[in-house]
Amino acid sequence: MMPVGTSSRRAAILAVAGRSFLRHGYADASMDGIAAEVGGSKSTLYRYFPSKAALFAAYVEEVATLACTALAAVEVEGKEPETVLADTARAYLDLMLTPSALAVTRLVMAEAGRFPEVGRIFYERGIQHSEQQIAAILHRLAEHDGPGWRSLALPGAAAHFRALCEAGPHEGCLWGRCEPVSGEEIARAAGQAVASFLHGWLGQGNREAVGRTTVPSRWA
Length: 220
Prior knowledge:
mainly alpha
């Protein structure tokens, strides 16, 4: 475990770095400027993070950890699958629609063309981590809710579910059209994502992959 002083220093660096990345962009954010704002030498900064890419990766991972923590808290046992999926969608959207998550997503969209490592870091540390959490929930549903739900464990299900969650107000917010979003709008978007997911993934589009699995009639 990191000593308390070291941990707090690292957190302070990440807070300053995050503001710098969002204010100046990845290209123009400098390790010199970040070190000066934190209050210390650049050599001290490099002891914590050996490069600007490593610092950006840690910042993205910190933002992604919030989403993963929220997803990990979704309760599965004793609930209907539709309720679990709606809870999952709301937890994901609640975090992805925060100003910090929207800001870092916009930053990556703007910088990934010039700096492919920025896009790779965001995908690996952010998107893939979230999908792994969603996949864990889908696997638990597939194990506990009968043969009609086994296709939830198929490869690609988590990515499909995540994309449907992002297709509503999240996409609008990224382009500055509908920020902020109310809790009622988030709940409605979550419900629409779940309905589309169940209809598409458990319905006609996935019968061949599922084989003889019985699809719940209300989604067929």
